[in-house]
Amino acid sequence: QVKLAESGGASVQAGGSLRLSCAVSGYTYCRYFMSWYRQAPEKEREFVSWIGRDGTTTYADSVKGRFTISQDNAKNTLSLQMNSVRPEDTAMYYCKYRCIDSGDTYWGQGTQVTVSS
User: Fold this and answer.
1) Are the beta carbons of 111 and 36 closer than 8 angstroms?
2) What does the CA dihedral 67, 58, 62, 87 come to, rounded to 10 degrees?
3) φ, ψ of residue 80 in degrees (nearest 5)
4) What per-residue confidence (pLDDT) applies to 1?
5) CA-to-CA distance for 117 and 110, rounded, in angstroms?
C-alpha cells in the first residue's frame, strides 16, 4: 500500500514561485511512474506533469517552461517547482502514483495553490 502526502501549497502573487512536494510512504512491488494533476473549482482534474523512471518528463502546454517536475528516489519525494505562476494556476494540486502493469493508482489528499493578480 502506498500513501502520498502533498505539501507546499500557499497563497502567492502572480509572478511568484512555489515548490510543491509529495512524500511517498509504503511500497508496491511494481514498476511505477508519478505525476502531478490539479483541479480548479468547478473544473475537471487535469494533467500537469509526469516523470518517468529514467527521468523523462512531460508537461501540459499551459505550464511548459514555467513548472519543473523532479523526483528524489533516495528520499521518496516528488516535487514540482512552479515559477512565474498565474491566477489560472489556482487549484488543488495532487500527486499520483500509478503501477504500470496493474494500473493500480494512488492519490494524495492535495495541496491548495492560490495565485492572486
Assistant:
1) no
2) -30
3) -140, 110
4) 84
5) 23
